[in-house]
Amino acid sequence: MENQTKVTEFILIGFRSHPGSQLLLSVLFSTMYIFTVAGNACMILIIRMDSKLHTPMYFFLENLSILDICYSSVITPEAALTFSLGRRIISYNGCASQMFFFSLFGTTEAFFLAVMAYDRFAAICNPLLYQIIMNKRLCVFMVMGSYLSGCINCTIQTGFTFSLSFCGRKEINHFFCDVPTVMHASCSDTLVNEIVMLAVCGSIIVGTAAVVFISYGYIIITIVQMPSAASRHKAFSTCSSHMLAVSLFFGTVFFMYGQPGATSSPDKSNIISILYTVVIPMLNPFIYTLRNKEVKGSLKKYGAMPSHPLQATRYLVRSPFQLGHRTPRWSGV
């Protein structure tokens, strides 16, 4: 028992079996992190600078960009340094802190996706009541509620995981301290922890995913009933991009946390987790905003994007908020 309670560090062994690819992984992670920070920071700046983008939709997108920078910063820089320098040791407290903030931002992003889906549902399916429904107070409440839900989940997950005993083997078969892999490294019986993870994470994933898909279901029904073929095509194109990001996020997260025996396949989690820790935060600015006409107009207005008339006529896709009604604008958001 004395040895079980004095573990002070862990060894991250994810991708260690491929020594020739360490430098490549470091460059890859560093490059994607730079794109993540630059892309999301650009969107925050553009939304703040252009008063035309002071709407509920872009308020959520701005907060999503802030969240993605924090989400990626918890994992990616440390992983890039690990691959380049070969320093795979992480302290006990550092591992707990990394798990806490990763769970916080990851859970909050799931709630953000649900909130944004509901916002689009209200804008397209209830345009006459949209200004009343999505007022500024409710939007701020939704953002704060998402962070509060993430804080509750990460406290539960981190507390239960680090209440386990760690003895002898201190290796974590991952490139960061994730809940399933840290549990797998424990010498305690993890049945209760797996049940808690399945119950809490499973309910969060199923609940938020249900809101997303039900909202988009009603959106699609509304779009089908639109009289204009051009409007239907543009709306479907936008929804398909959003649904791709949603499906990618919830699919990978469910594989990791929402099924029984999640700790039994740590090797698979190394590759799968790259998607939702590194790739998705990098792609979100492109998926959610850079295909939007208003955002592209703002980028050209402030000199951040050169004008390409041919590409603009072929690829500009308007937001569903622009179809059939005016979106209420906020001042000072």
TrEMBL record:
Q: Which key words tag this protein in UniProt?
A: Cell membrane, G-protein coupled receptor, Glycoprotein, Membrane, Olfaction, Receptor, Sensory transduction, Transducer, Transmembrane, Transmembrane helix
Q: Which residues form the G-protein coupled receptors family 1 profile domain?
A: 39-288
Q: How does it sit in the membrane?
A: Multi-pass membrane protein
Highest taxon of source = Eukaryota
Sorted alphabetically, which SUPFAM superfamilies does this protein's record hold?
Family A G protein-coupled receptor-like
Protein's cellular compartments: Cell membrane; Membrane
Q: Which GO terms describe its cellular component?
A: plasma membrane
Q: What transmembrane ranges does the database entry give?
A: 23-46, 58-76, 96-118, 138-160, 195-223, 235-258, 270-290
A molecular function (GO) term: olfactory receptor activity
What the entry lists under Pfam families is as follows: 7tm_4 (PF13853)
What is the role of the protein in this entry?
Odorant receptor.
Q: Which family does it belong to?
A: Belongs to the G-protein coupled receptor 1 family.
Q: Please give the name of this protein.
A: Olfactory receptor
Q: What is the species of this protein?
A: Calidris pygmaea (Spoon-billed sandpiper)
